[in-house]
Amino acid sequence: MAVTDDPEEPVPAYRRLAAMLREEIVRGRIEPDRPLPPEERLVREHGFAPEDVRRAVEVLSGEGLVYTIEGQGAYVSTRAEETGGG
Questions:
Q1: I need a surface site. Which of 8, 18, 29, 65 has the fewest CB within 10 A?
Q2: How far is CA 23 from CA 4, 17, 35, 71, in A?
Q3: What is the pLDDT of residue 80?
Q4: Radius of gyration over every alpha carbon of the chain, rounded to an integer in angstroms
C-alpha cells in the first residue's frame, strides 16, 4: 500500500510511520544492527500513538527489515543492506 496524501484514501498512522522508518532504513540513515528510534521518542516528536509505533515495527519486522530484542527494542536487520540500505 503506497503512502498518499489523497484524503479519499486515508493511510493509517502505523503505515505512515512504517513508510517513514522504511525510508530511513533503505537510505542507510539507520544502519544494520543499529536501533530504531525509541517508541517514546517517536510518540513525542512525531505524535504517533504507542500502538501505532508497535504496529509499524511489526510491519517492518514482517518485511525482514528489523528485528526485536525483548526489553531492548527494535534494530535494523542486515537484510536492509539487500534492499539498498546500509
A1: 8
A2: 15, 10, 15, 25
A3: 64
A4: 13
The pLDDT assigned to 9 comes to 72
d(CA 86, CA 79): 9
CB burial of residue 45 (10 Å; 0-12, 13-18, 19+) = exposed
What would the grid cell of residue 50 be?
504507542
Q: What is the dihedral of CA 54, 37, 1, 28, to 10 degrees?
A: -150
Stated pTM of the model: 0.80
Across residues 21-41, what is the average pLDDT?
95
What letter would DSSP give residue 30?
Answer: S
Q: Which residue carries 525509541 as its cell?
A: 38
- pLDDT confidence of residue 76: 97
Q: How far is the C-alpha of 64 from the C-alpha of 47, rounded, in Å?
A: 25
